[in-house]
Amino acid sequence: MPDIGLIELVVIGLVLFLVVGPERMPELLSQVAGIIRKTRSWVNDAKGMVQEQAMELKDPLTQAREVVRGEIEGATDDVAGDVRRELRELKETGEVMKQRPLSEIYAEMQRNTAQDAKTTDDTSQGFMQGYTRPETAAQDAPATPAKAEKGIKDE
């Protein structure tokens, strides 16, 4: 904005008075005042529109920020709950370890492993029952259908 002092305003007023004349001076000043009012009104409207647009842009950002903040807090709470649960389980395991000697736990693990191996062997033997290897099946089978009906084996 130009730096206009009191002396400059007086000089502008005198020049204007001499150019326009005393009869048209009030009319000219009211037109200038109207132009200044319209300009201020236009500037204020423009400011209002810019602020309104800024608020419209801020609202989704604010909502997105709140959603992200809520998700982060929820995830943090979930992780904290998981950590607390794991710590509780570790503490309980530690209590069990204090009550039972390590050698007893090791012996129990060996018994369980041996029992699992035995169960696996029993299951596989039952599964393999009735199975003959291809080499021995060829030796046991009769050579011709006629011999098969009589129950004679080839030797």
Give the CA-CA distance, first to last residue: 123 Å
Task: Kindly estimate the percentage of residues that lie in beta strands according to DSSP.
Answer: under 5%
Given the C-alpha coordinates, what overall shape results? rod-shaped
Overall SS class: mainly alpha
> What is the typical, i.e. mean, pLDDT?
78
Calculate Rg over CA atoms.
51 Å
Main sheet, how many strands, which sense, barrel? none
Number of strands: 0
Order of helices and strands: HHHHH
- Assembly type of the chains comes to single chain
- Counted by DSSP, the helix tally is 5
- Share of residues in helices: over 70%
Uncertain stretches: none
Q: In words, what does this structure look like?
A:
- The protein is mainly α and 155 residues long.
- The chain has 5 helices and no strands.
- The chain has helices at residues 6-20, 25-99, 102-128, 134-140, 145-150.
- The radius of gyration is 51 Å and the shape is rod-shaped.
Write the layout of secondary structure elements.
Elements: H1 6-20, H2 25-99, H3 102-128, H4 134-140, H5 145-150
Which descriptors apply to this entry?
rod-shaped; 155 residues; mainly alpha
Short recap of the structure:
The protein is mostly helical and 155 residues long. It has helices at 6-20, 25-99, 102-128, 134-140, 145-150.
